[in-house]
């Protein structure tokens, strides 16, 4: 039995819970995986804990109605709750802060130092403090899993760490932000910038503060994660040049169409003369290029490798269930590899 704590019960928190609930029987039969959600901490709904498992139907009902939790409420701050609860594993699903990493960074430290695995889609701790988190996890015999930080559930981190292990990767390039790709796709159909941004928020693609998406900061965080984890670069977010899509107008999009091209926000990491260079910028991509056909909230990344040449993966880059799946795949990896819970 895996006891789970959810830090954040917003779009992704609800997504992973829905998947766990809907696939409960399948996960038990296929993987011998069984779970209880024992704690939730959410800035809007409050902190709840029951060592025997929360009444999740009620928690979900209250959260969907925008009400505070009413059962198993505890008077503990987040860090105390994380440390004292009987969870084996904490899912850190609060909002991303790419300036400080907080509050997620405190949550991750509290979980790892009290012997709890961490699974997160939060880019803050991964982009700013991955080496520190990995060290803390190793010292405490647990794992720090971050598949959901890049391209939602489309396997990127696990692909380079698993099936592509042994290939040296010299370049990674592609579409790393679902919100902006969705916006650019819809703007091509004539929808105005503000209107389409609102829809992207409603669909759960955008960050809590969507300026992180449209100004390119979200993609910049992902480029930093890829540079450091896949290429061992040791770079900081500030080392990655960054321009978003805020200056792209409907006229620019129409002009690109006339030239048989499309605007895409491209993230790139490349080894050049022993240095790793990261960048995020809008580019006009010719229609004949495979990235031009990647529409909506879909992401696509091409890895240039020494043994296989180019390997491209295309898949969902944002969304409730799509990011929820990234959490599930890491939870199952912990269950499979560690047999701890
Ligand atoms: N806001 C992000 C995106 C979510 O649109 O790609 C996934 O990281």
Q: Strands, helices and their partners?
A:
Blueprint: E1 2-7, H1 11-22, H2 24-31, E2 35-42, E3 46-49, H3 56-64, H4 78-84, E4 89-92, H5 104-113, E5 117-120, H6 123-139, E6 144-145, H7 157-161, E7 169-175, H8 178-188, H9 193-202, H10 211-214, H11 217-229, E8 241-242, H12 250-258, E9 261-272, E10 275-286, E11 298-305, E12 309-316, H13 320-338
Parallel strand pairs: 1-2, 1-4, 4-5, 5-6, 8-10
Antiparallel strand pairs: 2-3, 7-9, 7-11, 9-10, 11-12
Helix pairs in contact: 1-13, 4-5, 5-6, 6-11, 8-9
This protein binds L-homoserine.
L-homoserine (HSE) binds next to α8.
Give a short synopsis of this structure:
By secondary structure, the protein is of the alpha/beta class. It has helices at 11-22, 24-31, 56-64, 78-84, 104-113, 123-139, 157-161, 178-188, 193-202, 211-214, 217-229, 250-258, 320-338, and strands spanning 2-7, 35-42, 46-49, 89-92, 117-120, 144-145, 169-175, 241-242, 261-272, 275-286, 298-305, 309-316. The model has no long low-confidence stretch (mean pLDDT 95).
Task: Describe the model.
Helix 6 (123-139) packs parallel to helix 11. The model has no long low-confidence stretch (mean pLDDT 95). It is globular, with a radius of gyration of 20 Å. It is of the alpha/beta class and 341 residues long. The protein contains 13 helices and twelve strands. The strands form two sheets. Strands 3-2-1-4-5-6 form a six-stranded mixed beta sheet, with helices on both faces. The chain folds into two domains: 2-153 and 321-336, NAD(P)-binding Rossmann-like Domain (Rossmann fold), CATH 3.40.50.720; 158-316, Dihydrodipicolinate Reductase, domain 2. A hairpin with a 3-residue loop joins strand 2 (35-42) and strand 3 (46-49). The relative contact order is 0.15. The protein binds L-homoserine. L-homoserine is lined by residues 152, 177-179, 205-207, 213, 218, 317-318. L-homoserine binds next to helix 8.
